[in-house]
Amino acid sequence: MVDLKALRAEMDKRYQVGEISEQRADLAFLDCDKIDVPDAVAYLRDHEGYVHLSFITCVDRLEDELFEIVYMLRNHEKKHDLGVKTKIDRKNPVMDSMHNHWAAVATYQRELYEMFGIDFPGSPGVNRPFALESWAGPPPMRRDFDTKKYSEETYFPRPGRETHDPAEHMKKTQYPGRADL
Amino acid sequence: MTKMPDREKFPVHTGGVENFDLESGRYMKVWQGPQHPGVTGNMALELVTSGDEIVDLKTHVGYLHRGFEKLMERRKWIQNFPLVCRICVPEPDFNEYLYASATEELSGIEIPERAVWMRNLNLEMARLASFLMWLGGQAGAFGMGTIGQWTVTMRDFILDRFEELSGGRIYHMYIVPGGVRGDVPDGWISKLLDTLKKVEKVMDDIELVLFNNAVFKKRAMGLGVITPDMVDFYGITGPNARAAGIKRDIRKDRPYLVYDKLDFEVITGDSLGVDSDAFGRTKLRSAEIRQSIDLIRQMIDRMPRGPVHVSPPNVLHWKIPAGETYLSAECTRGEYGYYIVSDGSDKPRRVYVRGPSYTHAVALFEHMAPGTNIADIAGLMVSLHTYPPEIER
Questions:
Q1: Residue B6 pLDDT > 80, yes or no?
Q2: How many CA atoms does the CB half-sphere of B44 hold within 13 Å?
Q3: B21-35, B76-90, B142-156, B276-290: which range is least confident on average?
Q4: B164 pLDDT exceeds 50?
Q5: Which residues of B touch A126 (CB under 8 A)?
Q6: Any idea what DSSP says for residue B184?
Q7: Fewer Cβ in 10 A, N or C end of chain B?
Q8: Three-state DSSP state, A70
Q9: For chain B, what are the domain ranges?
Q10: Would you say B383 and B278 are in contact if contact means Cβ atoms under 8 Å apart?
Q11: Do B364 and A72 touch (CB under 8 A)?
């Protein structure tokens, strides 16, 4: 069992942290200031036993003009997961890189750069394409990316193909001259 | 005694080289994949070789990107159910279970006890099928295609049972919100027990043939060593970590479904007395196949009777209260997880799928490959049990 109040108090002494919220007995989320995230995560790893990084991802809070980055950490001994969340400006999405903390962080940051357009200066190969080689459009995982509009503008229908209304087409081709249908 | 190649004429590689001078003729770039029988799934390996030795590897993904996470944001909660299982071919049930369980947690739905047992039976059958497919791949990577044919046949028998249970061979869409889609058909349990017997018999043969094979021993022993101190830094989970002697298994550490009611021990490399190399990992996974069979038998014996489904709210107008959760389960490759954010509407705000191969196939594999012979790279890759759709989703 993890004493969340004590954990938050311990973090509050060192870093600018917000509220800690408990989702389940083995899962909690901690808000943290953007500036303090790399140090706070390193502290959690080295002193609180959160040695395993499950993932890094981003939630687009379009209505608040914010990106919410989530670092999911796992404590094997206390059997507890802690999601460290931080909010960054959506118009200028830059976040401090943590590629020295865990080996996989550089890959996660590469994906966030590609899918959300969040820059991590100094992260190795962050601007190298990950899953979307030769992608020219805007970052596709953003909420305001309109998939339908993009595909209509980018991919044109093959010439010679036309679209019919199924009912009308059947009448015309299968039952020509039948007025009662 | 084979004559070792003269390594004097090749440059000594000490690591940390970013750009290799390909014009010098000392290095050669080789692409393995995306269409290559030795690569699991659609993934490409950009190899820089010096002689027949790998000096650098870069993993390229993107050949299988179908944008599941984006698609899910535009569909209602229930419309995502036929979608999530398609993320992973060998073990679609983990996607179904984690997505269903996370939505049930957020919307406060309790499911009947028999449904919990049925879900667990499903997951363990998926693990068994996935392990069998993997074992064939591992043997095939070292030139023993026959074993692949045996294991794929055995996997097919399990798929038959899945088909009888759910109607689908690969994608089952069996675990739905509120429980599972139906109870077992008449006579299905005895068929399943017969299948398990068949699998056990073939496993006896495989273990005899594979683990006593001189070629397999010589090539797999010492290949791709994972030391215990690498486990946390590289985020290694599942059998890869257990072979290194790290006793971690989500099924035991944080039991979900009914794993706390079943008798099993976490198998580690130390408990089997094997090293943490490709050979040790094969032995460990082969032991986990036996364990899966045992767990399925235990579940069949102890499964209670009762309803398997409760009616969820009208799924067409199903709104889930705002909140977020992360659920994880132990699949054959390691920690599989779903992070789901709801904003209170009828569609998810964000679904993130955490697959164990994300770290195994990129950061870990790129670290382990240098120094390996080019002939062994497929064997090394399969021994990590990488699976590309988890990386790009």
A1: no
A2: 16
A3: B21-35
A4: yes
A5: none
A6: P
A7: N
A8: strand
A9: 7-60, 68-355
A10: yes
A11: no
Token pair recorded at residue B13: 């590689």
The percent of residues in chain B predicted with pLDDT above 90, rounded, is 46
Taking contacts as CB-CB distances below 8 angstroms, the residues of chain A near B234 are 102-104
Mutating which of B359, B360, B390 best tests the A interface, going by the most A Cβ atoms within 10 A? B359
What confidence category does residue B28 fall into, taking pLDDT thresholds of 50, 70 and 90? confident
Cα separations in angstroms, B96 against B112, B173, B175, B330: 17, 7, 6, 14
Any idea what DSSP says for residue B23?
G
Q: Two tokens at B276? A: 């943490």
Pairing mode of beta strands B323-331, B334-342: antiparallel
Q: How many domains are there within chain A?
A: 1
- Confidence at residue B224, expressed as pLDDT on a 0 to 100 scale: 87
Place of tokens 């198998």: B267
Q: What are phi and psi of B234, to 5 degrees?
A: -90, 5
Residue among A76, A103, A131 whose CB faces B248 most closely: A76
Q: Is the pLDDT of residue B11 over 70?
A: no
Q: What is the pLDDT of residue B18?
A: 60
Within 8 A by CB and 6+ apart from B6, the residues are: none
Domain range B68-355, CATH architecture: Orthogonal Bundle (1.10)
Question: Which amino acid would we find at residue A26?
Answer: D
* Residue A56 DSSP SS3: strand
**Per-residue confidence (pLDDT) for residue B10, from 0 to 100:** 55
Mean pLDDT of B252-269: 91
* DSSP-assigned states of every residue in B351-384: EEEE-THHIIIIIIHHHH-TT-BGGGHHHHHHHT
Find, in chain B, the residue whose alpha carbon is nearest to that of A22: B325
Cβ-based contacts of B324 with chain A (< 8 Å): 23, 29, 83
Judge whether A175 lies within some domain: no
How far the first Cα of chain A sits from its last, in Å, is 72
Share of chain A above pLDDT 90, in %: 44
User: What is the ipTM score, two decimals?
Assistant: 0.88
- Inter-residue contact B64 to B34 (CB < 8 Å): no
* Per-residue confidence (pLDDT) for residue B1, from 0 to 100: 43
B17 and chain A: CB distance < 8 Å anywhere?
A: no
Residues comprising chain A, all counted: 181
Q: Domain of A94?
A: 4-158
Kindly state whether A26 is in contact with chain B, defined as any CB-CB distance less than 8 angstroms.
Answer: yes
Note whether B234 contacts A: Cβ–Cβ < 8 A: yes
